[in-house]
Predict the 3D structure of the following.
Amino acid sequence: MAGKKIKPRYYLIAALSLDGYIAKHARHFTGWTSPADKDFLHARLDASDCVIVGNNTYKTARQPLSKRNCLIFTKSVGAVKQASERRLYVNPAKVDVAAMVRQKGYRRIAVLGGTQIFSWFFKKNLLDEIYLTIEPVVFGSGLPLFNADVDTVQKFKLASVRRLNKTGTVLLRYTRNTH
């Protein structure tokens, strides 16, 4: 099919505590997740053309993300700031992110968060898949997957469930429910 544009696919990847938090606070490093979750995450990132993260998430995981194409959401730039060959700072309030992704030719986009980024993509109705790793830990309080102001309903369907280890880490994969 000559000339047909391939629609980029956006997939959210997050680890959650049993009580539903992605982290205890903004600078909480992902060291609390299991080696099995990290293996899954790295495999998904290796299959991605681009990773989209918030500035706090990027600062927290700068080392592992530095070798990947990253769009880093921040309000501290006018529109776009090229920081390096692989690192682009983007103000999503001033840029059509979906158009930029298409223009760059990215087809598989991993959305890593945090809460504000996940909520932004949800509100824009851009998420095609959601991967949630549920880790058997309890934080008691922390950062939710989505902000409280997410008030739209979008339907997803459970596509797969996979136990990742003996302690009970579970990977849930949801796809957009088109019905």
Summary: Residues 78 and 177 are 36 Å apart (CA to CA). The chain has a mean pLDDT of 90.
